[in-house]
C-alpha cells in the first residue's frame, strides 16, 4: 500500500495540479493525505474536491511538523512526500518504486526539472560538504547525460521522495526543530550513520516550481537555512570537530553569507546564524566519527559533479580555500 503526503500552505493552483497528476499515475497511490498548514486560500477545499483526506492545522507549523503528521496518519507501507508545487510525469511513482525495489533501498528520489524551463535541472539528490553546506546536485544545470545515471545516494530531497514506512520507524520522524529547510539533510545523515542508503532514479521525472510560496531568496528562507546549517553541526558533528574541520565550517558558512548578501538577504543570514548559535548548546549532540566520513564522501561527490558540469562560484571558492 502506498500513501502520498502533501504539506500545503496556500498555493491552491499548484495543489490542484499535483493532485491530478497523482490520480493520473500508472501506479496510483492508495491514499492521498493533504496536511493543510492553516492556508488562507481554498487549498483545503481543492484537496477535498480531488478526493484527498485533509488534515487541518490552525496555523503554519512548518514543513517538518506537517509532514510528520501526515506520515503518522498514513496507512501505507511506502510513503510518498511531495511539495504542493511539483508536477509529475505519469510513470513517476512506478519508476521510483521499481528503482527502490531493484536497488534494495528504502528511500528513493528521481530527477527534478524546473517547471518554468523544463530542459534545466531543479535538483536531483543532495550532497553536503564538511563545512555543513548542502548542494542540490544539478541545480540550475541543463539536463543531460550526467543527470541520467542511476546511483546510490545518501541524501534525498523531500521535494519529491519515496520512503519505506519501516525506515521511518527505524530512523525516526523529521526533526521538527528544523521547521523548514535542511530537515531532509538531517534525515539523510541519520540514515547514513546507520548504513541506510537510497537510490537516485533518473527515469522518475518531476517538475518543480521552486519556492513558490515565498520566493527563493525570501528573508524567512535565508534565515531558516542559515540557522539550520548551524543546527546540523550542533546535532551531528563528533567531538573534536573544531580542530579537524572547524576551519572548513567557518569558510563554508561565511561564503554562504556572502552569497546571501549578494542577493540582498545579509541581515536574514546574520539573524539565522544568531538563532543557530543561541540554540547550539540545546541541540548539541556528540555524533560518531563516521559522520565526518559520510561528509567527506559527499564533499567528494560535490567536487566531481561540479568539475563535470561546471563550477559555481561558491563551490569553486570553497574548494580553492579548503
> How would a textbook summarize the main sheet?
10 strands, mixed
Radius of gyration, taken over Cα atoms and rounded to an integer in Å: 19 Å
Query: What's the CATH topology name of the largest domain?
Result: Spore Coat Polysaccharide Biosynthesis Protein SpsA, Chain A
Query: Helix tally?
Result: 13
Number of domains: 2
SSE sequence, one letter per element: EHEHEHEEHEEEEEEHHEHHHHHHH
CATH structural class of the largest domain: Alpha Beta
Tell me the span between the first and last alpha carbons. Answer: 47 Å
CATH H-level superfamily of the largest domain: Spore Coat Polysaccharide Biosynthesis Protein SpsA, Chain A
Structural class: alpha/beta
Number of strands: 12
Low-confidence stretches: none
| Mean pLDDT metric | 93
- Judging by the overall fold, what is the CATH architecture of the largest domain? Alpha-Beta Complex
- The amount of helix comes to 40-55%
Tell me what you see in this structure.
The chain is 45% helix and 20% strand. It is an alpha/beta fold. It has two domains: 2-208, Spore Coat Polysaccharide Biosynthesis Protein SpsA, Chain A (Alpha-Beta Complex), CATH 3.90.550.10; 219-321, no CATH class. The strands form two sheets. Strands 1, 2, 3, 4, 5, 6, 7, 10, 11 and 12 form a ten-stranded mixed beta sheet that branches. A hairpin with a 5-residue loop joins strand 8 (126-128) and strand 9. The protein is globular, with a radius of gyration of 19 Å.
